[in-house]
Each structure stands twice: as C-alpha cells, then as structure tokens.
Amino acid sequence: MEVLKIQGGIPLKGHVRAAGAKNAITKLLVASLLSDKPCHFYNVPSIGDVEVTVSLCQEIGMQVSWDREKGEMHVVTKELKTSYIPQRFSGSNRIPILMMGALLGRTDEDIIVPVAGGCDLGQRPVDFHISALESLGASVEYRPMKRQGAYFARAHNGLQGNQITLPFPSVGATENTILASVTARGTTVIRNAAMEPEIIDLILFLQKLGANITVDVDRTIRIQGTRRFYEVQHTVLSDRIEAASWGMAAICTKGRVFVEGAQHLHMITFLNKIREVGGAFDVRHNGIEFFYDGPLEGGLHVETDVHPGFMTDWQQPFVVLLTQAAGSSVIHETVYEKRFGYAETLQEMGADITLFKQCLGGKCCRYASKNYAHSMIVKGPSPLTAREISVPDLRAGFAYVMAACLASGQSVISGVQFLDRGYENLAGKLAGLGVQIERSTVKDPVPVMLPMAVDEEEEVKLEECLA
Ligand code: EPU
C-alpha cells in the first residue's frame, strides 16, 4: 500500500499548474466513440480516472496514443469491436453508465454496461439517465448478477429525438442524454439540464465533431441529430476543482500560491466565498494567485448547489479552511446526501464540527426530513494535530491533505489511489510548493479497489446473454 507522509505547519508557497479537468476529459473520450473520425486532445491530465476510461474505450475498439509528458492524446474508433462493457469496469468510476448513451448513439447492437461506481457519496442512482434514454426510444433493463448488476440496452430501430425534463439538473444524466441525442433522428430538447462548465466543454467538442447544439440560459439544451462527423482538435478545460483546492490550501496554511490555468469565469461563486472568509486572490491573465491576507473570519453560510452555485466538490477542502476561521460557519450540502463522511477524522484531528440532519439554510433541499446528516456547523479557529488518515473518497482526500499540511506533526495518509484518480502528480506538486512530503510503500492491510478483479463466471454469463 502506498502512503503519503506529510509534515504539517509549512505555508504553501510558489507556482502550480492546474491540470485538465477529470470530469471533462473522461466524458470527451466517451463522446469521441460516437464517430469513426480521429480526435486529438490537449491538456490531458495524467490521472487514474483517465487511465480507467482509456482502458474501457480500448476494450470496445478505440485506438489510443497518449503522450503523458506533453498531455496529448490522439484517439480513433474506426469500428466497435463489441458493445459489451466487461464487469471488471463496474465500480471503477462513473463512466460505464455514460457508455450507454454513446453506444446507443453509435450502434444498433445490444449493449451491456455494468453498474457505475465512483466515490461513495450516497446512493447515486441512475434513474434519470435510464428514463431519458427510454424517452429517446431505447429499451433499458437492469439485471441483477451474482455480484454486481448490469444494464442491458438496445435501440434496434435507432433513437428518436424527444422532449425530456430532468427531475434534477444531474451532470451525468444531462451528459448521457446529450450523447444519445447526437445521432437520434430529429431534435431532442433537454429541460432542467445541468450547465456545469464541463458540460459546456462537452458541447463545444460535440459541435466540432458535427453536432448541432444550442444552449439557452434557462437550462434548456437542444440537440439536432446528425451522422456526419469531422476530425476534431480539442483542448480540455482546466480543472476548477483542482484550482480551487490549491487556492484553499494556500490560504489556510498562510501561504501564497499562483495557480496557472485557474479560470475566473468558472470560479465566480468560489471567489466570492474566499473573499467573504478573508482570503485574498489576484486574477491574472493566465491564472489566479491565492494568498493569506490576515486572520480568517468565519460566520459564513455555504450551500452547495449545481452550477453556477457553490460546487459540492469544493465543500470538503472549504470546511478545512473554515476550521481556521474565527467564529461559526454553516455548511448545507444539497447535492449529495452523504458527503460529510470525512468529518469524523477532522474532528479527531481537532476540528470543531457538528453535523445536523436538518437543512441549515434557506434552500429546501431534496434531503429535508430524510434523516441524512447533510448540514454542518464548523467553529474555528482550531489547531489541528497530525494522525494516521485513511482517505474515503477523492475530494475528502484532498481535504485530508490540506488538514495534514496544517497540522502539527507528521500525518500518514493511506488510500492514495483515490487521490491518484483525480489529482495529477499530487506529491510532486505539493513538494514544489514547499511541503515536506514523502510517497512511500508500506505493508498493505487494505485491498486496493481500482479496477475490480474479473469474475470469470460472471463475464461468461454476460457473454452468453449477448450471444
Ligand atoms: N441523481 C439521481 N438520479 C440520477 C442521477 C443523479 O438521483 O439518475 C442524483 C445523485 O444521486 C446526486 C445528484 O443527483 O445526489 C447529482 O448527481 P449528478 O448526476 O449531477 O452527479 P454525477 O454525474 O454522478 C458529477 C461529477 C461529480 C460531481 C457531481 C456534481 C463526474 C464523473 N462526477 O457526478 O464529481 O460531484 O457531478 O457536480 O463528472 C468528483 O469529481 O470527485 C465528483 C464526485
């Protein structure tokens, strides 16, 4: 097992580059499966989720050439080798479910995709995806298997555009519906769609690929079906979660970090909260510098929301920042029901955090009266003490890294594979900012989860279903 050993108490100082966005490139690769034309990607991050997505796409026929040093990837899927995504990709990340939309758009054959995985943030159902794809004429059936279930989908007569209103602006369901609509006959209208910058990046890519898509300000996306595609060059937008993570780490350790590639347009809500807590930033032409500018003041009220609201993925490191701010602040998580799993470890490190099942905030969210601890009060400032930490998920992982940078003493962080999924060269970047960090291997008491081991029997059963 690999661990990160971090000696806390040193302010982060220097220059770091935010990589291309994990939540954009993984979808762009899937989108490229719609056509048989070459696609050239730039600013591709060298992270675990891209590796898993590449293997998944290669499995079904994509040819890939990836220069990790240059951050360039050239792909083409001249023809599909199969439309069956093996069970071993189940649980690896959220991408398998998006394969359904892309494959329905590419082939009339039967499609099998395993259940999606990703971080454990709650139930994470895919009902909106399924019902949107059914509205486009696909038949989708969930079949339980011995260990993990799989979705069986088909649209033997092709897909037909339709009017779809999502019950919630789900990122994945919006992406899946867009992907399936690109080759559908006629026009698809998606209402209450998610409008995250990563979705706009997907739309920009698809437009270059040949799709005709319009985006209205009222969360409506219109897609005119096509089967005429072009070769594409696309630069992946920079990762606003990573950029914000470095900004928060700089401010809470009383440091100063210039984040190259941080884009103002995608961080407006975040920057407002940074200013409210007393942190400082300077927006430059090629990035944003974040710095400590005197004692941090709490008293904030933060409600996570879909874009353009405060991202749920900024929430965990922001809580660590709030442990260093004077006074009480309130966090209301409205996107996921179970995104405070990291709080207990922070409490053990010395943070003053109390969880509540009620909605603490003006927004009446989907979890009101549902018994989920989805609100929190953080009181600060609290000195933190180093300890052994096990990372439960990607963003909680960065929050722990921040806490370790702040804490007195040396923390040992395990579960590094979660961090590797989304942060490129994390230890190297931290070292470049002055953090005393060592990545080393220790005896492994915990089985590594990515990717899942193959269950031969289950694979055979699925092959039989396809035959
Ligand atoms: N939801 C449903 N039914 C559905 C789909 C979603 O109830 O069919 C619920 C989810 O359970 C959740 C909420 O809707 O409570 C939002 O889910 P959404 O579909 O928007 O999220 P996602 O597509 O699964 C992506 C990112 C997450 C990010 C969220 C919200 C990827 C691969 N993941 O997940 O990123 O938190 O959008 O912005 O794009 C991360 O990068 O660490 C991460 C978790």
* Class from secondary-structure proportions: alpha+beta
Task: Describe the sheet with the most strands.
Answer: 4 strands, mixed
**How much of the residues is beta strand, in percent?**
15-25%
Proportion of helical residues: 25-40%
What characteristics describe this protein?
2 domains, UDP-n-acetylglucosamine1-carboxyvinyl-transferase, Chain, alpha+beta, 23 strands, 467 residues, four-stranded mixed beta sheet, binds uridine-diphosphate-2(N-acetylglucosaminyl) butyric acid, single chain, 14 helices
Verbal overview:
By secondary structure, the protein is an alpha+beta fold. The protein has two domains: 2-19 and 238-441, UDP-n-acetylglucosamine1-carboxyvinyl-transferase, Chain; 22-237, UDP-n-acetylglucosamine1-carboxyvinyl-transferase, Chain (Alpha-beta prism), CATH 3.65.10.10. The protein has 14 helices and 23 strands. It has helices at 22-32, 48-59, 95-106, 127-135, 171-181, 197-209, 240-252, 268-276, 312-322, 343-349, 394-406, 416-422, 426-432, 456-466; strands spanning 2-7, 13-17, 39-42, 63-67, 72-76, 111-114, 139-143, 150-154, 163-165, 187-191, 212-216, 220-224, 232-235, 256-260, 280-284, 287-291, 301-303, 327-332, 352-356, 375-380, 388-390, 410-414, 436-441. The strands form six sheets. It has a four-stranded mixed β-sheet with strand order 21-22-1-23, covered by helices on one side. A four-stranded mixed β-sheet has the order 2-14-16-15. Helix 4 runs parallel beside helix 5 and helix 9 (312-322) runs parallel beside helix 11. The chain is globular, with a radius of gyration of 22 Å. The chain binds uridine-diphosphate-2(N-acetylglucosaminyl) butyric acid. Uridine-diphosphate-2(N-acetylglucosaminyl) butyric acid (EPU) binds at residues 22-23, 94, 119, 122-129, 168, 170-173, 194, 312-313, 335-336, 394-395, 422.
